[in-house]
Amino acid sequence: MTTFSLLAAADAAAAKSGNPVDDIIRLFGSFGVDWHHLLPQLVNFALLVFVLYRYAIRPALGQMEERNRLIAQGLADAKAAEQRLADAQKAADAKLNAAADESARVLAEARASAAKTVEAAKSEAAAAAAEVLRKGQAALEADRARMLNEVRGELARLVVDASGKVLGQTLDDAQRARLNEAAAKELAR
Amino acid sequence: MSASVRAEARRLLALSLEGGAVSSDRVAAMLAALTGSRPAHTLRPLLRAYLAAVRRELARSEATIEHAGPLSPEQAAAVAAHFSRALGRPVRPVARRNDSLLAGFRVRVGDDVTDLTASARLRALERSLSA
Q1: How many C-beta atoms lie closer than 10 Å to residue B106's C-beta?
Q2: Which residues in chain B have their CB less than 8 angstroms from residue A169's CB?
Q3: Is the pLDDT of residue A101 over 90?
Q4: What band does A123 get if pLDDT is binned at 50, 70 and 90?
Q5: Which residues in chain B are closer than 8 Å to A181, comparing Cβ atoms?
Q6: Per the confidence metrics, is the pTM higher than 0.90?
Q7: Which of A52, A118, A164, B72 is the most buried (most CB within 10 A)?
Q8: Rounded distance, CA A84 to CA A33, Å?
């Protein structure tokens, strides 16, 4: 029997009796509802619902909640990891910047030190060259003075020897006697 | 030679002087007195020291005059008199000719030398030219 046919039968019954409660009871009866079996069926249904809820739905809900919790925790962990990653990235960037600054500073210091070393080496080399030049000039001057002295001494020796020989050959006893007399006078003074 | 031997030799020398000059008579007397007065091994160093002292004293009282050309005895005596006055003791002249000195004379009294020769002047000239 279709719904429309049942409604049509109910309308027809209502039209015949005129009491609505009786009409409903008749209607449920026409539906096939057995009041004697309805309560056990309700109890059975409640038991079924309890069993299903106790052993199927509630564990499933617990698992779902656990899974939701795990998902939420995973999301939170992912967010925290993302935050940590961002922090680490910032720290790495800061360290990179600091390292770049430090390397630039070290490079500048190394360049300055190298420049100083080069300047010191230049100065030292110039001083050494000047010292070598000075020593060379001093040695040349000493050699020149020594040679000049040697030449002068040799010349003086030659002059004296020649003068002695000339005097020895030219002085006679009369002249020597006069010179001796002059020496005696010089001694007496 | 020990200091005591030299001191004794100086005392003997002082006893050998006569008028500030070494007297040969006194020296002979000293030697005669010393001979046989003590053993030979102690007498020999004393005699050597005495001989050295007498030689030094004779050199101090002797003006050795080396001269080029003639030097009269009067000139030699005048030179010795000059050193006698300067040293305050009698000095006798001993002249010796040496023509390598060219001209003038050189006098040595003890360790003192006075050079008035032409060769010395030339050596001084050579030193001044070499300096």
Answers
A1: 20
A2: none
A3: yes
A4: very high
A5: 75
A6: no
A7: A164
A8: 66
Q: How does residue A1 score in pLDDT terms, banded at 50, 70 and 90?
A: very low
Mean pLDDT across chain A: 87
Q: How far away is chain A from the Cα of B85, in angstroms, using its nearest Cα?
A: 11
Contact B78 A184 (CB under 8 A): yes
Interface of A with B (CB under 8 A): 149, 152-153, 155-157, 159-160, 163-164, 167-168, 171, 173, 175-177, 179-184, 186-188
Please say whether the beta carbons of B50 and B13 come within 8 A: yes
Dist CA A58 CA A128 (whole Å): 99
Sign of CA dihedral A145, A146, A151, A154: positive
Taking the CA of residue A180 and the nearest CA in chain B, the distance in Å comes to: 4
What is the count of residue pairs from A and B with beta carbons less than 8 Å apart?
Answer: 80
Which residues of chain A does B98 touch, with a Cβ-Cβ cutoff of 8 Å? Answer: none
Going by C-alpha positions, the residue among B33, B32, B31 that lies closest to residue B47 is B31
Judged on CB neighbours under 10 Å (0-12, 13-18, 19+), A13 is: middle
- Burial profile A160-184: b = 16 or more Cβ within 10 angstroms, e = fewer: beebbeebbeebeeeebbebbeebb
DSSP H or E segment with residue B127:
helix B118-130
Cβ partners under 8 Å of residue B22, min gap 6: B13, B16, B54, B57, B58, B61
Considering only CA atoms, which of A171, A176, A187 is closest in space to residue B93? A187
Which one of A153, A167, A188 has the shortest CB-CB distance to B102? Answer: A167
Domain ranges of chain A: 162-188
Query: Would you call A149 and B105 a contact, using CB atoms and an 8 Å cutoff?
Result: no
Are the beta carbons of A183 and B116 separated by less than 8 Å? yes
Per domain, the residue ranges of chain B are: 3-59, 62-130
- Residue A53 tokens read as 């809820």
